[in-house]
Amino acid sequence: MTTNSNSLIAREVDRQFAKLNAKHGWCCNNPVTSDGFVWGIDPIAEQKEYASVFLLAREWFAVNGPPDAPLLPDQHDRDRFRGSGGITALVGFYARSLSARNYDVCKHPPFHEFACGVMAIATEKGLRNLEKDETLIRRFPPRALVGMAPGAVWYPPEEYAEWGRGAA
Prior knowledge:
By secondary structure, the chain is mainly alpha-helical. The protein has helices spanning 5-18, 44-64, 75-82, 86-100, 111-125, 134-139, 157-164, and strands spanning 27-29, 36-38. The protein has a two-stranded antiparallel ribbon. Helix 1 (5-18) crosses helix 2 (44-64). The chain is elongated and about 50 Å long. The model has no long low-confidence stretch (mean pLDDT 93).
């Protein structure tokens, strides 16, 4: 018997959204991603789609990310992760950058390559004390990543060129 993982994810998203007790015009947090939206104004279908994409990216990262990495965090936890140090901090930066690409793991550098880019910023300019973590520096040798902005968010090269000119 085959299971459609998309339908399992959709059911989970529907289950979590059903728990929201919101009224028209209320500010809410997406129960899956923690991103804010306004009930009845922002389309729920788009919120659910974004939640599904996030859960798919989380599952992909659980399978393809480092075995000692925590789960890909939602918006609320990714900021906390970034300040925590070690691989957890790198996962927080990765999650924030990946969210800027709508969690499309095919249009974002893989974790190892991204982590090396973050470590390049950290060792050059300092970044939340990651530059002091010799274990991370050895594991993710600092290497500049084309498209990496100073805040450790990756942009495709053509967008990065626009961002550098102040247009993004």
